[in-house]
Amino acid sequence: MIRGSLLGIIWMICCVCTSLQQETTFVYNGFDQGDHRIHLDGGARILRKNDVLQLTNETTTQIGRAFFEQPIEFKPSEPVSFSTHFVCALVRVGDVSGHGMAFFVSHSTDFVGAEPTRFFGLFNANGAASTRVLAVELDISKAPDVLDISDNHVGIDVNSAKSVKAENASYFSDREGRKVDMNLLSGDPIQVWVDYVGTTLNVSIAPLENQKPSRPLLSSPSINLTEIVQGRRMFVGFSGATGSIMVNQYLLGWSFSKSMASLQKIDISKLPKVPHPSNKNKSSSTVRNALLGLIAFLVLGLVFGAYMYRRNLYAEVREEWEKEYGPLRYSYKSLYKATKGFSRDEFLGKGGFGEVYKGTLPRNIELREVAVKKVSHEGEHGMKQFVSEIVCMRSLKHRSLVPLLGYCRRKHELILVSEYMPNGSLDHYLFNHDRPTLPWPRRFAILKDIALALSYLHTEADQVVIHRDIKASNVMLDAEFNGRLGDFGMSRLYDRGTDPSTTAAVGTIGYMAPELTTMGPSTVTDVYAFGVFLLEITCGRRPVEAGFSAAKRFLVQWVGERWRRSSLLDVVDPRLTEFSSWEVERVLKVGLLCANLAPEARPSMEQVVQYLNGNLALPEFWPYSPGIGVLTPTAFSQAQLMVPSLSLSSSSSNNSMFITHSLLYGSGR
């Protein structure tokens, strides 16, 4: 019985190994309709008669794609490489040649925005709109706007139909010792090999009866596939499009593997024949009737398409439970027009959870500039909670907060509208040396602005608000360079006199209070982060700088050590040429006091405001006072120290109410 069980286990292991091998190495000598591992999209189909995979049929403006259904995945220990060999044929339909086809590697199979024209169904005039793509094109049309070299060439494309490298179709004949030209549109089968090892991509082609040439047609030595597919997984397949002129694009066989050594050979003898259209003479009346019918169909299609386009362009999602939030809701039509159709000219940047665009909305008799952010969402429950929390955040009224004006919902998108901050985020003026530095009086004024905002959140708002991610990149600057606290994506709201009731530890490395992991967030953890923020603005450097020496690496420790050496002013940003020594010294000491290792020793934000304004004397404490200028005992990994802006989070308890999306101006945590 034990022997039988062992044999069964061995058999199962063999089956699993075989399954895994099939997912990474496969070969098709013709295509079987019953094999569901090949996913067909658009006009792609498998012809019943001869098991040929056809990407597009004789229909204009059509896209056809065929790809291996499961993504090719690489373990961390594996190099990202692949080899493929396929046999294809491009067969002329009419007197005018159409468009070619492409083998592609991408991180997604969602090619939203790809045009059914000369861009192989992968790109549009601006490149790859929705996914990152590496493609090898067999192109039979010359498009000057993408710098095509001829109407018979092979090219390597990266996220755009403009090839990074291209050559006229040819192969190196080992027998003749020279290059031999090929006609891609001959209708004859063409062999194509694509090999990627390291960062080098080689492409070779040859007629069906030839072996693989010893010299590749194309070789590009600097392609980083992990950047293109954004990870260690990728989809592979073929794509073609017809545009206004057509050509039949056929695939006869395909072999693929993660490595060249394990690539299986295609059995040329088993490949199906290339279908060729029959040349039947049609009467002129039949052609005329078909043409008239086609014109009528196109006119009706255009009318219907224009109607559906206009109907869907401004379509929104509205549900019964949203009625109570009516005054906060903007129509999608108004936001679409305000941003000029979410034009790239109005693009401001990409935050933690979506893209931000500048918009202009009418307000009474004048125009109002706004920032419009598009984020994705899933699930009705999460959506209800999110909209409810937006309402809570909108109730916050303070001149030093970025005002949230409202929202809109459309399909799987949530659109947030906030007041536009024309001068961007504070960190750009601290760490981007292409911008002018902010003088000390302006920095000091910004510090006091944010201190007032936090004091309001902690003590004056209807509910206590813990921000939990205070840092320079979350401070926005209005037209007068006043500081505005934004990005409430990690904020926590709770009633006064109650416990926050959460074990979540979230924030950004360097700003997180040491007790976060054990006691959870509170107003004093915000005070700790604000203390680090005070030092950051005054010193002009981030809280953790991995490239610095051990003595200067951690900002809080470094400032404390300088104070202990009676050289506190040595830490001031060297770009500040004029400043008040009294103000700078007070700010640095308040920063160290707020960043005290002991939570009970930190001041409240109300006291911090008075300290900064000079209305309250600082308590007596010294460079060697307990908890002053001391590193947090929390041990960070080396990888975390290399990315000091990295944000950390853990799961919250069930009864915690978190704002799980960034409410505009996210810093890309």
UniProtKB/TrEMBL annotation:
As given in the record, the signal peptide range reads: 1-21
Q: Which GO terms describe its biological process?
A: defense response to bacterium; defense response to oomycetes
Localisation per UniProt entry:
Cell membrane
Pfam families registered for this protein in UniProt: Lectin_legB (PF00139), PK_Tyr_Ser-Thr (PF07714)
What's the Enzyme Commission number for this chain? 2.7.11.1
* Residue stretches spanning the membrane: 290-309
Annotated ATP binding sites = K374
Its Gene Ontology cellular component terms are: plasma membrane
Membrane topology, from the record:
Single-pass type I membrane protein
Keywords on this record?
Answer: ATP-binding, Cell membrane, Kinase, Lectin, Membrane, Nucleotide-binding, Receptor, Serine/threonine-protein kinase, Signal, Transferase, Transmembrane, Transmembrane helix
Per the record, what are the reactions this protein catalyses?
L-threonyl-[protein] + ATP = O-phospho-L-threonyl-[protein] + ADP + H(+); L-seryl-[protein] + ATP = O-phospho-L-seryl-[protein] + ADP + H(+)
| Source domain of life | Eukaryota
A GO molecular function term, named singly, is: carbohydrate binding
List residues of the Protein kinase domain: 342-621
Classification via PANTHER family: PTHR27007
Would you identify the family this protein belongs to, as annotated? In the C-terminal section; belongs to the protein kinase superfamily. Ser/Thr protein kinase family. In the N-terminal section; belongs to the leguminous lectin family.
Q: What is this protein called?
A: non-specific serine/threonine protein kinase
State the species of origin.
Brassica napus (Rape)
